[in-house]
Amino acid sequence: MIVSFIQRAVMQGIPLLYGSTGEIITEKGGHLNLGIPGIMYVGAISGVIGAFFYEQSVETVNPILAVMIPLLSSVLGSFIMGLIYCVLTVTLHSNQNVTGLAMTTFGVGFGNFFGGSLIKLTNSDTPSIALVETSRCFKTALPFADKLGAIGELFFSYSFLAYSAIIIAILVTLFFNKTRAGLHLRAIGENPATADAAGINVNRYKYVSTCIGSIIAGLGGLYYVMDYADGIWSNNGFGDRGWLAIALVIFAVWRPNFSIIGSILFGGLLIAYNYIPNLSFEQVELIKMTPYVVTILVLIIISMRQKKENQPPASLGLSYFREER
Amino acid sequence: MGAPAIELKNITKTFGQIVANKDVCLTVNKGEILSVLGENGSGKTTLMNMISGIYYPDHGHIYIDGQEVLIRSPKDAFKYKIGMIHQHFKLVDVFSATENIVLGLKDEKNFSLKDSEKKIREITAQYGFELEPSKKIHEMSVSEKQTVEIIKVLYRGADILILDEPTAVLTPQETKKLFAVLRNMRDSGKAIIIITHKLHEVLSLSDRVSVLRKGEYIGTVNTAETNESELTEMMVGKKIELNIERTKVEETPDRLEIRNISCINREGVTLLNNVSFTARAGEILGIAGIAGSGQRELLESIAGLQKLNEGEILYHNPSTGYTENLRDKSPVKIKELGVRLSFVPEDRLGMGLVGNMDIIDNMLLRSYKKGKSAFLNRKNPKDLANKIIEDLEVVTPSAKTPVRRLSGGNVQKVLVGREIAASPTVLMVAYPVRGLDINSSYLIYNLLNKQKESGVAVIFVGEDLDVLIELCDRIMVINSGKITGIVDAETATKEEIGLLMTRNDGGESNE
After folding, report:
1. Which of B464, B465, B38, B5 is nearest to B220 (CA)?
2. Fewer C-beta neighbours within 10 Å, C or N terminus of chain A?
3. Which of B75, B92, B106 is facing A191, going by the closest CB pair?
4. How much helix, strand and coil, in percent to the nearest 5, is found in chain B?
5. CATH topology assigned to domain B1-81+159-239
6. Which of B93, B94, B104 sits opposite A198 (nearest CB)?
7. Tens-place pLDDT, residues B425-465
């Protein structure tokens, strides 16, 4: 049971890990993207749309296309969302919080609208779309996983998107600490005027980091629907995982490698109620609250310790006007 | 001393009507330290900004190594190996020194902080800097941060270094270390320009001195062949008649008595050092001094905005006859004691007014505590706003215009008008005519004179010595947080005040 608990916790955590890695890249460039929940939602529905029409158009699905088409449509969907956010906040200097919240509202509405439309197209009785074939392709695990018993279940039973999430998180950590571009991006998030004076193209970095961050976050939505939910889309099924991903950013003190552990912890806390017997309804809700409580505790602790390295990027949420130097 | 590294010929720069630099000529040789000396607003920084590519001159030529060059951007300046160290550091707080130094560099093939750190250690060893490259900026003292800035330009291969008032933020020991490093750099053939207004630094550090006054180039002298009084005269010039009327008030009782106040900031720099003086009712007390000598801290400590380490601020209340100690009391507490204090701060839109609010609401800021109703009463502030607009000839579309949209002079009139309307017994004004045209300036002078005649103790922090001498009754000179003298304005000369402003007897005793 412990093994299956951890396995489920990891699967719960992967969407959060994608979301928080994407948000960390964005925040390191000084942009607080509260549109992440919406972007993850759009990433999911875009993948669903791609998969739906591919499944409808062919008799037997080609596993490679069945993965590539939803993947590319998901990337495209979340990229466009990121681009809209960039145009509004980087070029037009609109307020980042307001823009982000609008993007979330928009993304969720967009997802539910197209989700509802697709459900109508299928004429099914249940309010959901089942993309079983596509999901099976996405869930292909390593072939030797079931031969290794508990170790196989714990480490090798996941799909490629789950491993990608961890690899991306590690790569992003290396990018921040070991590359020139990473140094430049961090400088922009801390002090854009200094970065500008040092000859760094601030707006280009902001665009690229925010759009890449959105794409990564969108993959979290795709993973959720294709893998975690077994290819079954139902409106609002994604829940508040997007917000949890943003909370995870704070929990991980802006370090993607910490998010890997954090996401599994959050995932575990989210599903813990299933593994504790005889809980009343109220107790279930209380346990579901724990990730947020933990986040608040982390916030309190990092504020009290006043360690500069653990603070959010100094110019997070602030627009940068060169003329105001 | 080597060949000229950089030569400026007849450089002129104007901003609208204001001439910031007029026909300035300057030469710096390789292996030489040149001081550019001048009062506030004499155009030193503008000139240096033209060398470092921030501004572009209207007329004139710049030669580097004998070749005429055009410096259009900081990038061009960098190409000609010119490095400027600004007064305000451009550093990322959470980065290490190394990370800050390599920030923005693109030409190195491999990105390796270790290699960069090695190169930085070579530079520090060569010139005798003290710096740990892996230390984070936010853990550094001001002088360490400055070291990072200097190494940043050296790392990029600068041969001509410009330092804008490098010692303004340093303690005397740190200054000594900096000078040693600068001399090392000079001896290795770099050309160094240092902007300053501290005479003793000029004399001890530089090889030659160029003097600017009100944007004009006065001349260059060899440091070995000059002395303090000659430089002061070049810097301040002869007295100009301004014809500001100065009335004498018969009775001038003591109003505010400052006794031995001292103030040390968090970095351990002494901002105010054993300051004592008395401000009398019916008198304008001028405060002269180079910008940043402690004027701001002095006024703020009287207004209850600055914590003091030592001393007392005594207020003799004319209506009750009591004496109150205002030290470390909040502005609200001071007001509750019945002290009618008005303060026109240097930073008008930052500390004095709210830019996005209209004139009426800005009036309200001072009186919002009056009245018992839960709702605001806009009637009185509105009358006051209209009265100020009329009396002080504020140019504004209406009283409902956000003050941010008014011109600098009109903003100042609104602020001064509001502070005077509170019928103060002590009125403190800091640089009230900065950025104002002649007419507005005279209007402000007249307002201050009227306040004085009605028995207010006026404290006036100014920068133009001619105005201070004409307007004030007594002038107190502050230098590095220390009072170096209080002179009678009727008999004082500009040279006398200039020497008090720059004399080096405050510096060393700070230790």
Report:
1. B38
2. N
3. B92
4. 35, 25, 40
5. Rossmann fold (3.40.50)
6. B104
7. 999 999 888 767 777 788 888 889 989 998 899 999 988 88
| Cβ–Cβ under 8 Å, residues B153 and B74 | no
In this structure, which amino acid lies at residue A5?
F
In this complex, the residue of A179, A184, A314 whose CB is nearest that of residue B93 is A314
CA distance A308 to chain B (A): 6
Is there a contact between B103 and A183 if contact means CB atoms under 8 Å apart?
Answer: yes
Identify all chain A residues contacting B136, using CB atoms and an 8 Å cutoff.
308-309
Query: Looking at the domain assignment, is residue A319 inside a domain?
Result: no
How far B104 CA lies from chain A's nearest CA (Å)?
A: 5
B94 min Cα distance to partner chain A (Å): 6
A184: distance to nearest CA of chain B, Å? 7
A291 Cβ contact partners less than 8 Å away, ≥ 6 residues apart: A244, A247, A248, A266, A269, A270
| Cβ atoms of B413 and B440 closer than 8 Å | yes
CATH code, domain carrying A168: 1.10.3470
Comparing alpha-carbon positions, the chain A residue that sits nearest to B91 is A194
Residue-wise pLDDT tens digits, A197-214:
888 889 999 999 999 999
Token pair 């959720």 is found at: A224
DSSP 8-class letter at B358:
B
Q: pLDDT digit string (tens) for A241-273?
A: 999 899 899 889 999 999 999 999 999 988 888
Residue listed under structure tokens 């030193």: B44
Instruction: Answer whether residue B239 shows pLDDT above 80.
Output: no
- Which residues, 6 or more positions from B377, have their beta carbon under 8 angstroms from its beta carbon? B370, B371
User: Which structural domain range is residue A222 located in?
Assistant: 2-310
In a domain, A324, yes or no: no
- The tens digit of pLDDT for each residue in A38-70 reads 999 999 999 999 999 998 888 888 888 989 999
Q: Residue A219: CB partners within 8 Å, gap ≥ 6?
A: A18, A43, A74, A75, A78, A161, A164, A165
pTM of the model: 0.77
Nearest C-alpha neighbor of A185 from the set A26, A13, A292, A14: A26
Chain B positions in Cβ-Cβ contact with residue A184 (cut-off 8 Å): 103-104
**What is the three-class DSSP state of A67?**
helix
CB B86 within 8 A of CB B165: no
Structure tokens at A177: 């600490």
Pick the CATH number of B254-340+424-492 from 3.40.50.300, 3.40.50.2300, 3.40.1370.10, 3.40.50.1000: 3.40.50.300
Q: Where in chain B is the domain with CATH 3.40.50.300?
A: 1-81+159-239, 254-340+424-492
